[in-house]
Amino acid sequence: MSDKKLWQAVLGEMEVILPKASFATWFKGTYLETTPEGTAYVYCPNSYSRDWLENKHKDQILSILKKLNDKINSIVFKNCGQKNLERLPLEIQPPAKTAPESSPLIGFNPNYTFEKMVVANFNALAYAVAKEVALAPGKKHNPLFIYGGVGLGKTHLAQAIGHEVKKNNPKTKVVYVSCETFTNDFIAAIASKKMNEFKKNYREAGVLIVDDIQFLSAKEGSQEEFFHTFNTLHQNSRQIVLTADKTPQAIPALEGRLASRFGGGMVVDIQPPNLETRIAILTEKCKEKNYYLPDEVIEFVAKNIPSNIRELEGALNRLIFYCQFNQSSPTVSLAENVLKDTVSSRSKKIDTAEIISAVCRHFGVLEDEIISTKRKKELIIPRQVAIYLIREQTNKSLSEIGKIMGGKDHTTILHAEKRIDELLKIDANLKSSIEQIRESVLSAK
């Protein structure tokens, strides 16, 4: 296996582990060379990235390299300088720059298109709305606010809008940045006294896409500037697309006038995919990679990574690379071994309060009511579901769960668990609800 493919596999794992902005900042322009003696040389575009990777991620990177290639025994970080930037193995989001209208998209992943997105119940509404926005930017659903958990495809969907707009209207200026990049650009513009250039870049966009807008939280200066940028674009019918991990109203320390504007267009969410959808995603990715995995292996991966598409793809990439590198046939036992770190990390103990909170959100009931002695009809199923999931996801005893649920005895807890078991055999809606709650809890880990 070539050094380039080996480094691509390492980057794939690091992208899953690190925050998006950190990954984009420190891994841009890196590449790998290995020696027959087992030394891995990681070349960085400048001394800053070299020092950061060596000080912060040396052990992590070496561990991944050893896992992928057991011949590697040491790692050295070097500054390759600007002359080697043409060797970039991976295109990673750079800060937005002022560019001519006919310039190519900057910071976009070429694979993040509508055509390459698996559409199912968990993202169907968001996908449909995004398509409408892409076909008529600024005319409908402005702003578009997409929210959901980590790794569910928000960035993919947002960038797909940019790709589609550019394809249909090549001269439209499409700007895509993370919220952190917007804030950093703003601070740099103030320091360098180049606010006019900053405003020109952002306020003359035909489409502005800002990822992870929740990071505006508590940044008063950046919020003020974004407020004026938003108003300028909106008043001129320029499309604004925002992504976040929560609704506008739930973002802490966000000015009310911004929360109001963010929610003034269309707000859509992306839910964690169910098992069938995860299997479909993995099957589609295998087709893209022209690699065959047996159904039982795909199902094993899908069952053990229940909520995060990014982790799902990362696990698939690791498994395929391992099989190709070692010329091994993919089996469930091999997948268990290759993915043992990922699977075990998903098995961390979950707090009972998280389960109760997720159940209450799903059924629209209050937490103090679900653990009370009230016998309201609308509380029975949510209460029993909470008990069922606590039994499933924790090591709590029947008596411990009884105390958590408001002092109920162990026979009541056992009855609730058995009742849900029985209902799951005949009630498809309840089964779907429990799967959604389970995945909601796991996605927060």
Can you walk through the features of this model?
The chain has 445 residues and is an alpha/beta fold. The protein has 4 domains: 3-87, DnaA, N-terminal domain (GMP Synthetase, Chain A, domain 3); 124-270, Rossmann fold (3-Layer(aba) Sandwich); 275-346, Helicase, Ruva Protein, domain 3; 352-443, Chromosomal Replication Initiator Protein Dnaa, Chain: A. 55% of the residues lie in helices and 9% in strands. The protein has 20 helices and 8 strands. It has helices at residues 3-17, 20-27, 47-68, 124-135, 154-168, 179-192, 195-203, 220-235, 256-262, 275-288, 295-304, 309-326, 332-338, 340-346, 352-363, 367-370, 377-393, 398-404, 410-424, 428-443, and strands at 31-34, 39-44, 74-79, 144-148, 174-178, 207-211, 239-244, 266-270. β2, α3 and β3 (74-79) form a beta-alpha-beta unit. α1 crosses α3 and α10 crosses α11 (295-304). The chain is globular and about 70 Å long. Mean pLDDT is 86; it is low at 82-101.
